[in-house]
Amino acid sequence: MISGPDRREGGINTLSFWAKLAVITAVVISGLVFGAGFLIPLTFALILFVLLTAVIDWIAGQKIGDAPVPRWLAHIIGILLVLTGLGATLLILGNQATGVSEALPRYEAKLAQIIARLISAIGEENAKIVQDGIASLDYSAFAATTFNSASAFLSGFLLVLLYIPFLMSERAPMQEKLKLAAGDPETGLQIASILSDISEGVQKYVGIKTVVSLITGLLSYAVMKPMGLDFAETWSVLTFMLNFIPSIGSVLAVIFPALVALVQFDTLTPFLIIVFGCGIVQFTIGNILEPALTGKSLNLSPFMVILSLTFWTSIWGAPGALLSVPITVCVLIVFSHLPATRPVAILMSGDGQLRSSSEPERPTLGKSKPPVNSQMAAQTGEAD
Length: 384
Fold this sequence. Notes:
Strand content: under 5%
Strand order of the largest sheet: 1-2
Helix content: over 70%
Low-confidence stretches: 1-8, 356-384
Shape: globular
Radius of gyration: 26 Å
């Protein structure tokens, strides 16, 4: 029978645990909020670094005749491909930013005409309420806010580009430094396994999401451009970017160009074509193509995706929405390697089945189970 002091001691220990957990959680969230100016560009740089290394490794795996592509050439081609894509995105947004600002008054006048047509349908009193609401909108302030956001994005983007070369230079030395920092070979193998799985998972997500979003943007452009929609290139780029936001991103990618079509054209036909055309593109790619490409490699619970989207958006705003899934993938992989947090990883997963390469503390089972990479295989063989 457990004595009274023991029960009190257990209760105190439990209370102490939850108090420490609450303090740690508060400190981490505070650090994320107050350190957003530093952490957001760094996180984007890490994601871009992972994408760049995936492109470089894929190019290095190809062959020119019977010889593999040299690593130095793979680096040059990979960097040029990524920089070309980023440069094209900024060029399109920069060239059409002035046109969007100039078109706002025209859209305002067109919207007033649409409301005038609705007066007979909804009544003068209701129409007056809508007109007063639209009149209260400050379009110049909206344009200024958009310009300031674009300027902040550009400065953050330049900081991201500054981080990339240093991350590339640290890629090879960091592997050796982690081995030395681990202290013993077994811990080194576990750290290498975690980092390998994180890199593989994020590369898989970022690579597939980039290709799928690019296809979605191009097909949406093919729907919008023949209709003569203003700034179709800008909406296509935004479609590409919004598709990185889970669930609501694809909806916003249809709503924005549809609203422009509503105020630009005199008939509803272009509006309906864009709504149904872009909607079909989003539905087909999001529900058929993307799941076929990803399979179960990103085995995240749908509720966890929405929860992470809500959390990171409330912490970091729009950048947090873009980064929510990659961050959650990293957390899931790390939790799956640690025995204490493995039950949490199971709850975070879609079907409770974690990847086999994420089995914790099994670096010595090289004979019965293939190691994570060839380097680990060599070390296991030497240990045997």
